[in-house]
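2024-03-11 09:14:02 INFO worker-7 job=invfold-0412 stage=load source=structure_tokens
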């Protein structure tokens, strides 16, 4: 099953609910390789947070990343 706009909206809505109450976010998926890195990289980009020293962010899933970034643009109108 491909990552969808609905998946992106769910992730963005979740993060919006918790972002003011947390300083760290643990992102994981079944394999913990490319999807989780795609989500982490997209959230870092969208919210202007440093990616820090994440070795695996260079292996990120491009579909997950672009769907989240594009959906954020749709949701906010930016």
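2024-03-11 09:14:09 INFO worker-7 stage=emit residues=78
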């Amino acid at each position: 099953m491909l990552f969808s706009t609905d998946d992106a909206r769910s992730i963005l809505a979740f993060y919006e609910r918790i972002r003011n109450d947390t300083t760290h976010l643990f992102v994981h998926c079944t394999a913990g390789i490319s999807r989780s890195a795609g989500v982490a990289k997209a959230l870092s980009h969208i919210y202007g947070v440093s990616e820090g020293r994440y070795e695996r962010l260079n292996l990120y899933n491009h579909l997950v990343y672009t769907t989240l970034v594009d959906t954020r643009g749709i949701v906010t109108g930016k």
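2024-03-11 09:14:09 INFO worker-7 stage=report msg="The two ends are 28 Å apart (CA to CA)."
2024-03-11 09:14:10 INFO worker-7 job finished
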